[in-house]
Design a protein that fits this description.
about 30% strand; elongated; alpha+beta
Length: about 120
Amino acid sequence: MRVRQAAREAGVAQGFSLVDQTKLVTAASELARNTLDYGGGGEVEVTRLSEPPRRGVRLVFSDKGPGIADIEQALKDGFTTGGGLGLGLSGAKRLSNEFSVASKVGAGTQVMIARWR
């Protein structure tokens, strides 16, 4: 809930429409859940961006969990190592304007998303 609230507050502060706020919050919620469920917890950094004339929000999720062995496979709709639908990473990617994943098996994962208005 704290991540969702922080994402929404950043989106509102940047003048995001309700639709863009919802996309940002939904992506943040999915990635926060992944960080907890698969990474054993971690951190999120929320940054307001300004590159006139556009404004945006960047969220970086980091964990020290087991990592992702095959990022390409993990980004496919329906792929899951848990009991979910397998739409967390791929869904967050679709809801974002920018998306990146860096992971090392045994060392953790970092996922960055950004949304612009």
